Amino acid sequence: xxxxxxxxxxxxxLASGISHDVETxxxxxxxxxxxxPWLLIGMIGGLGNSVLLGxxxxxxxxxxxxxxxxxxxxxxxxNVGIQSSAIVVQGLVNNTLxxxxxxxxxxxxxxxxxxxxxxxxxxxxxxxxxxxGDTGITASVSLSLFSVVMFASIFGTLVxxxxxxxxxxxxxxxxxxITITNDIxxxxxxxxxxxxxx
Length: 198
Hints:
Blueprint: H1 2-15, H2 28-54, H3 57-62, H4 70-93, H5 102-131, H6 135-165, H7 176-197
Helix pairs in contact: 2-7, 4-6, 4-7, 5-6, 6-7
């Protein structure tokens, strides 16, 4: 039981972006060394996102309402990716997900994400249609959200499986890595779709 508890704590810390096992009793330097790497990677991801958004400054100037949905797109993509990867990691840990079932899991996750993406994007479409009255931004936000949810779900499924196959702890996939990647890809999708539709 002690071994199971320690493994669970280690996985939880990896999922939180803590690079190695630390305890509350560890000194400040050990705790900083365990946390800082992923925080720096997150910072780099955030700077990358700001550069990406800066390239679409003219779009924001002509349609300022675009900025209202940046957090919605990024947050939803991150949440979906973490949900998908958490389910896969759990399946790998308790042996309910076998290497031969990878395509079956990807297909299942694709169907789940298709349903979730449809419902979420439809709710946002209806809300924006009545609140904003701008069909261009309404359509681009809904289509972007649909695409981001689909991408995040499949990405969140494949990453832990790939890490597991490479003999790397798949719990790494459930934390900052998925969130950072989905933020950047989500913003790229949103900017490109909005550029085409508005």
